[in-house]
Amino acid sequence: MSGTSVPRVELRGVERTYESGKADEVRALRGVDLVVESGEVVSIEGPSGCGKTSLLNLLGLLDTPTRGEVLWEGESVGGRTDRERARLRLERVGFIFQRFYLLPTLTARENVELPMRALRTPRAERRHRADELLREVGLAGREGAFPHQLSGGEEQRVAVARALANRPGLLLADEPTGELDTANTDAILALLEQVQRDRQATLLLVTHNPAVAGRARRHVRMQDGRISSDVREA
Amino acid sequence: MRLWGGRGRLRHERLQTILTIAALATAVALPVVLLSVGGGVSAHELNDLENAGYQIVVSAGGYHGIANAHRIAGQILAIPSVTAASPVLSVAIDAFLGTGQAVPSLAEGVIPEEFLPTLGPTESGLFPSPLPLGDPTDAVHFDNGTYDGPATNDVMVSSPLAQEYHLAAGDTLLLGPSSNESQAVRYNLTGTFGVPLGELGQTGGFALLLPLSSLQAMTGLSSGPGVPVVDAADTIEVSVGGSVATNPSQLDHVQQEVQGVVPYDSVSTLSQEAEQLQSASSVLTGFYLALSSVGITVGLVFLTLVMLRRVESDHRSIGIRRAIGVPGRLVVGGVLVEGATLAALGAVGGVVVGYLLVEALATWSTGAVQEAASLAEFVPLTLAELTLAILGLSLLAGALAARAALRLDLAESLR
After folding, report:
1. Best B324, B406, B410, B413 residue to mutate vs chain A (most A CBs within 10 Å)
2. In this structure, is residue B201 part of a structural domain?
3. Which of A230, B153, B270, B363 sees the fewest Cβ atoms within 10 Å?
4. Looking at the 3D structure of chain A, how many domains does it have?
5. From the CA of B332, how many Å to the nearest CA of chain A?
6. B330 touches chain A (CB under 8 A)
7. Which of B205, B236, B264 delimits the end of a domain?
8. Nearest CA in chain B to A165
């Protein structure tokens, strides 16, 4: 499990309970089994509170299951230290959030450079790559802009560029177009599709928007913390 | 450290940053003022001791201090290797200089012939030699303790006093022990003497020098009709000659001989005086630091709260960084660097504020405060140690905030 290859990720009998044992206990995931093959484009659909984001967080190693196993390339990552999990995220996962989550004190370029800095990429190289990625997402000339100077669509483009900075094999997008208008939604989805195609990355899209889900070739539906259907398009 | 936010973050939280730096600067300014002024005054006093022309000092407690000063000085002078024994009586008196108001002045009564040899090289240049006070041994007026001899009524004044009231040798002036002019006695001004230069130039000391017996008679610290002889002095400064002055064991021997003359008074060498002064100075420094630690503690508690507040308000940014995979040590490092940056700016600001405060006191205040401020010494090593101590303690504040940053629930912080 090394390098920047596209990982095969798997959940086995995964349960995730918040505030376990307390009166306000929430069982977000209840015995989920899921295998995502390298290069797949998967939509995770379902109503609010059905466990979509919890599932995404477990796959992206942001969280650990209360029970069950998360496997990357057939190997359990449950025993990994926080540092090792952070390293895996840094090198192999790209996150795209609904609210963009750019750092407000950094420029667009600095936001894109952030994962590369953490990976100790040389300054010239990361600057070159950040500018290249920003150009790729259609933001050439906006490198020095701060997030508050960008529109919602532009912010999400920066977020996509940041997610791609370390050439990850696994892209996890949590409602990536949830706060965008139709035009920007189409643009961002087209961008994600292109990126996935060019890089042969695995793309998991959490959404409750049928139009967004329609871009995927595999549709996982969730209900009350369980996978209610898993359909692959022919 | 832009991974945390660095300078951009400091700009982003501008008011909070300014207030934190101001709080720390205020906390640091106090020890800067106390240590620089206290250290400066101590150093000045030590310097005076090191440059004194006498090696042994006799002193006594009580209202009248040393009694029978003339006789004791004579007995000490008889000790081999003693070259001068100068009794000194310092009393605040009033001078009537034709302005209609009494001018408070410090009068020193001395035996002219004994006084000059006890002056150090710096001080001796401020006085004419011999002193123009007539009766060099003060024996004529003293007249074996009867005070029946003719008084010269000669007096010298300090140059600031002479300049202020346009006095010159040949003038006469009235001096008295109180503001009641009817008790004043007419004196002949026979000369002036300088005062040591301070950092602001001449200190504004209004001082008078006159024969010991004259001052004793004026202030009642002498015999009078039906009054037993007092012949008072505050101290007797003793000079020794030759190699004895620099030989500790020989000086100790002379000290013991002097002690034999005045068994009930305190006799000490200047090195002992210096040790006592240094010891007192150390105690004072400790007191200053203890006093300052209150302010510094409050400043650091404020810094800790600000850092914790920043982590709390920045939980999403921290969550994003950690979600991306930025190692925890970089997040911790960023928090520590930010805390240390604030502390460093506060410490440097405190040093600058402290320096400006001392300069302002030296320029615009009056009296003892001005004099003390003008003697202040800013020792770079002390200031560096103070800054480093603040930086070190700020790491503690940063560590608490960093711990809070690391304990943030990743998934929760991204909701």
Report:
1. B324
2. yes
3. B363
4. 1
5. 13
6. yes
7. B264
8. B324
3-state secondary structure of A43: strand
Distance CA B406, CA B37 (A): 44
pLDDT digits (tens, 9 = 90+) for B199-216: 444 445 789 999 999 998
Stated length of chain B: 415
Q: Which chain B residue shows the shortest CA-CA distance from A93?
A: B324
Residues of B in contact with A114 (CB under 8 A): 3, 321, 324, 326
Q: Which two tokens stand for residue B73?
A: 């000085």
| Domain assignment present for A118 | no
With an 8 Å Cβ cutoff, are A106 and B5 in contact?
A: yes
Look at residue A44 and give its three-state secondary structure: strand
Give how many domains chain B has, as a whole number: 2
Residues B205 and B123 in one domain: yes
CATH code, A49: 3.40.50.300
Please give the ipTM for the structure prediction: 0.87
B8 in contact with A at a CB cutoff of 8 Å? yes
Low-confidence ranges of chain B (pLDDT < 70): 1-12, 61-64, 196-204, 221-229
Chain A to chain B Cβ contacts (< 8 Å): 71
pLDDT band at A25 (very low <50, low <70, confident <90, very high): confident
- The model's pTM is 0.66
| Shortest CA gap B400–chain A (Å) | 20
Beta bridge partners of B82: B240
B327 and B221 within one domain? no
Partner A contacted by B352 (CB < 8 A):
no
Q: Which of B230, B264, B298 is the last residue of a domain?
A: B264
Residue A134, in any domain of the structure: no
The 10s digit of each residue's pLDDT in A180-223 is: 788 888 888 888 888 888 888 899 999 888 888 888 999 999 99
Dihedral of the alpha carbons of B384, B387, B389, B395, in degrees to the nearest 10: -140
- What is the distance between the alpha carbons of residues B324 and B335, in angstroms, rounded to a whole number? 18
Within 8 A by CB and 6+ apart from A16, the residues are A27, A28, A29, A51, A54, A58, A63, A65, A66, A225
- Per-residue pLDDT tens over the stretch B355-366: 999 999 989 888
Q: Which domain holds residue B237?
A: 61-264
Between helix B315-324 and helix B328-364 the angle, nearest 10°, is 140
- The answer to whether A63 faces chain B, any CB pair under 8 Å, is yes
Distance CA B277, CA A209 (A): 83
Distance CA B410, CA B414 (A): 7
Residue A121 domain-assigned (yes or no): no
